[in-house]
Amino acid sequence: MSEKKKKIKYEPQFYPGTEKVSERRRKLMDPERRLVKLRDIPDDDIVQLLGHRAPGSLYTSVHPPLDEIMEPYDPIRDLVVPTPGAQAGDRIRFVQFTDSFWSPVIAPWLRARMYFNRFRGVDTVIYSGREILEMRERDVEAATRLLIETEVFDPARTALKGLTVHGHALRLDSDGLMFDARRRYVYDKELKEVVYIKDMHARVLDDPIPVGRPLSEEELNEMDVTYRWNLTPYKSRTELLLIITRATNFRILGGFKPDLIKGM
Amino acid sequence: MKYQDYVDIYSDKGKVLGENIPIEALSPLYNPYINKLLQIVKSTVFIDLAKLQRMLAKGQVGYTTSLRQDEVKTMHQLDLDLLGNAHAIADALEKKLHVYSFNGYEDDTLVKLFNDDQCLMVRVPTLRLAIATGRDVIFTNVGLLMAQIISDMFNITPDNNPDGCGLIKTALFGRYPQMKSFNPGNPLFGFLKLPQELEGMGRGYQGVTINHLVALANKRTLDAVALATIFEQGAQFEMGNAAGWYERYNLLGMAYQGLNANNLVVDFVKENREGTVGSVIRSLMQRALEDGVIRQKGDKYPNILFSGYKLYSTDDPSLWNAYACAGLLAAVIVNIGASRAAQGISAVLATFGDLLIFESGGLPDPDFGRIMGTGLGFAFYTHSIYGGAGPGAFQMDHVLIRHTSGFFTPCVAAGMCLDSGTQIFNPQATSSIFFKIRDVLPIFQNPLKQIAESAEQIKDKFR
Lengths: 264, 463
What we know:
The structure holds two protein chains of two kinds. Chain A is of the alpha+beta class. Chain A contains eight helices and seven strands. Chain A has helices at 20-29, 43-50, 75-79, 84-88, 108-118, 137-149, 217-223, 238-256; strands spanning 92-99, 123-126, 130-136, 158-160, 185-188, 193-198, 204-210. Chain B contains 17 helices and eight strands.
């Protein structure tokens, strides 16, 4: 086993498909590709939207900084580099997004794929319309910045919802916003931007926080990540269907008897 | 020999421990170390004398919760100095338990005090196990003999103290047989759960709490992985899941994921020290291509799709699965090593397969999707409104996590080792006594080294 094998330059492929929905999925999953920044949100506003601590206050910790903990010897533990939040012993905090069913810029299942490619030290669970992301506090703040400021956030159809996450499958309101039973955000007609008047936990904010203009229907169509009849229809999923069929076939045959899938 | 597969076993520091080992020499059937460890696991039982004394003194028995254990308080107490008489109890127990060396069986009874003489470890002789159908004998005999010794030593009889007799029974056996099991945190306990609690055939060795293994490994990641793998594969062989078609499949998975064969896991972790789950997947693809485990299926359509997406194929699905399982473990280590918080284990287990399928052109994900299926349930029920316990508090045969070929719980054990104190159900809380048990049972120390050494001893028999 010890002879050296030839080095291969492996090119990651992330996802099959020729049309723009596949391309969009590939882009979000590929950590080498930068996400387009669409808006600027000040640090303090992100902290306030998350609502875990007051802006400027210290991070609460769940244990002392790693440098101060005596842990039994483990070479593997020494090998992996902890995130800044883990290093400092921050509490675990979360951010949760609900994505509308109506042409959102991202969807929960794609979030998981993106998080695991772009973030370190992630805990995330996929639900039908929402996705939670749990990390150490300063890590989750850094991640939230990316998730709100870039193209994976549409103020109208993706929303920060720490609780009462309902709204994914409901019709949009007259301003084109996703339904929110807690009315955390409203459309400011003068500013022409969506404004959060409550934080993620639906506690009223001292000052409203604008998060930018809703994306137009044309922009959303361009950025769509879902195959749908009116935009990128079923037929164009050929490559994807082929891969899914292949995977399912392998799972069933191989799961029955591993050698059945030899060379397939 | 049945299979032509050889591996090198490496330590967690990347040092070779054994070279050119046929995978069959690592099998629970043949590897002398694994044989012995499994034998010790099923024949050893413990009595926590300090706890027993406290329960008798307070009359707190028959509880049903694992944490406070104070919801039942009887009207009766027994103030007995068990700790002061620990040595006398140990001697008496050994005398009553031992057997003659007979019918080819040696008398291997062992009764030993540890943890400052507060805890009793009892190895039940093999002969007693050999004539039994299962391993109930370790609980029944040792518990009953202990009750007899207390009765003799402190003169407690139905005549002078009938309630005391009942109290001793309930302290040792909980509400069994009115209830199927002992109480959680019972002073009489073994490594594995009681046989009558098992929910399927051959799941015996899975009846261990993952945190116990983490404690037995003293939170050393790859040691905990190796121990979890031994328990899991012990069960796989018992339940017939590693027979025939699957034997090589399980042995390869066991070697590459559980025993760091060819240093695969450590290599992946090293390459992705500052990486993500996704980057581990790309390392896995690269390594599998370099080692010839998978190959590009062809160089034109339909093996390369119009988008340029390539299909891969494997001529050795069992080996590919072993590589994928090693990648899975490395991904858990890389993700949890970064956050140092064990709660993310389930998320990796749930998503790794999905990412791998789309990266590899549909090649099967670890354990042909069983990891992903199990992981999704594990993630769902350990998060959100469903709460659930921390990952380490699960027993390996829990209904949520038992559905794989033994490649799931080693990842959970690894993640628990890397947690730096964010879990309520941490090993210190749920399994503190097992840190002490590790000290008295050297067989649990350096499992990788011991497996490799004993495989070296027998490897020539497989040529």
